[in-house]
Amino acid sequence: MSRRTGLATMAGLICVGAVAIIAVNAAMEPEPQPTPPRVYSSCMAADTKPMSAGDDPCDGR
After folding, report:
1. Contact at 8 Å (CB) between 58 and 43?
2. How far apart are CA 29 and CA 9, in angstroms?
3. Where are the domains of the chain?
4. To bridge 43 with a disulfide, which of 32, 39, 58, 61 should be the other Cys (CB 3.0-4.6 Å)?
5. What DSSP assignment string belongs to 1-31?
């Protein structure tokens, strides 16, 4: 085997090894979880009118 063939073989093996390492790392990463849906409530909205202590903004009246 000539020196040039040996260097080409080593370079090829290094590339194959690098691709294998990248593939293993990609397979081991967890998949990102979807973002949970946001929940909006009118009960949490700021009210401009003062409320008495016994009033419930979420009672539906």
Report:
1. yes
2. 31
3. 1-28
4. 58
5. --HHHHHHHHHHHHHHHHHHHHHHHHHHSPP
For 27, 38, 57, the CA distances from 45, given in Å and listed in that order, are 44, 15, 10
Q: CA-CA distance, 26 to 28, in Å (whole number)?
A: 5
At 45 the three-state DSSP class reads: coil
**Over its length of 61 residues, how does the chain's per-residue pLDDT go in tens digits?**
688 898 999 999 999 988 888 888 777 777 778 888 877 665 555 556 666 667 766 765 5
* Cα separation, 18 vs 10, whole angstroms: 12
The two three-digit tokens of residue 9, written as one number: 């073989």
CA 24 to chain centre: 19
